[in-house]
UniProtKB/TrEMBL annotation:
The keyword Transmembrane helix applies. Keywords: Membrane, Transmembrane, Transmembrane helix. It is found in: Nucleus inner membrane. This is Unc-50-like protein. Residues 1-17 have a biased composition (Polar residues). The keyword Secreted does not apply. It is a multi-pass membrane protein. GO terms for cellular component: Golgi membrane; nuclear inner membrane. InterPro entries: UNC-50. The gene is UNC50. Involved in the cell surface expression of neuronal nicotinic receptors. Binds RNA. Residues 1-22 are annotated as: Disordered. Its main location: nucleus. The chain crosses the membrane at residues 83-102, 114-136, 163-183, 190-215, 227-249.
Length: 261
């Protein structure tokens, strides 16, 4: 149900806010509320954020049904609670320190890697992808142009965070146990790069699928199935990598070491 704007006779002649200005003000107010909660840990619902993280692996559709509920009750698609972002940041820091340990980095090198991963890989790339998807969905995937409906930038960022979390757990946590032990995926033998590249296929596949679910949940978007098309390229790249002996995990380890030198 769309919010209505009441008529204010005093606004005539005084440059009353039009609908776009009002929406911008509302977005600013919501953003302020979200950032303010970062300073008040007791106001964050970490239990619910953990529930979302669990279901992003087992049933991501349930997570987006909750986004529908938020739209109905709070008139916004994006999260108003930064608890998920805080827990994701903790996961990122812990897993990056794990990478530093596995790759035999010293304290300074691990700190450099952590700063690169947090500010470039997570925040920088996340802002870039979210902005790109925000522009593309509003410009090309809208059922019909309207000032009443649009994809919130905050929602696009939430979709990225949702999709990024399983990728983070698989490639930055689960993969750690296989780099130098069990299968030793950081090697040139077949089983190593087969297991490693399969983890990459699973992680990026999760990212594509959860991104698709996020935008297909918006009733005013069309042709969201196009967001699944990268799957074909992903599978092709996976088959090609196995055939040619490419090892994505070995490349990642080399790239991380190169960064901190």
């Amino acid at each position: 149900m769309l919010p209505t704007t009441s008529y204010n006779p005093l606004s005539q002649g005084n440059g009353a806010l039009n609908s776009r200005d009002a929406a911008r003000h509302t977005a600013g107010a919501k953003r302020y509320k979200y950032l303010r909660r970062l300073l008040h840990i007791k106001q964050m619902d970490f239990e619910f954020a953990v529930w979302q993280m669990l279901y992003l692996f087992t049933s991501p559709q349930r997570v987006y049904r909750n986004f529908h509920y938020r739209k109905q009750t709070k008139d916004q698609w994006a999260r108003d609670d930064p608890a998920f972002l805080v827990l994701l940041s903790v996961w990122l820091c812990v897993s990056t320190m794990g990478f530093g340990f596995v790759l035999d980095m010293d304290f300074v090198e691990t700190l450099k890697l952590l700063l690169w991963v947090v500010f470039i890989d997570c925040i920088g790339v996340g802002l870039l992808i979210s902005t790109l998807m925000w522009v593309v969905t509003n410009k090309y995937l809208m059922k019909q142009p309207s000032r009443d409906y649009d994809v919130e930038w905050g929602y696009a960022f939430d979709v990225h965070l949702n999709a990024f979390y399983p990728l983070l757990v698989i490639l930055h946590f689960l993969q750690l146990f296989f780099i130098n032990h069990i299968v030793v995926i950081n090697s040139d033998w077949f089983l190593g790069y087969f297991v490693g590249n399969t983890l990459w296929l699973t992680a990026i596949g999760y990212y594509i699928y959860i991104t698709f679910l996020g935008y297909s949940a918006l009733p005013f978007l069309k042709n969201t199935v196009l967001l699944l098309y990268p799957f074909a390229l992903l599978v092709l790249l996976y088959v090609l990598s196995i055939s040619l002996g490419w090892n994505f995990t070995k490349g990642l380890c080399w790239f991380y070491k190169y960064r901190v030198q």
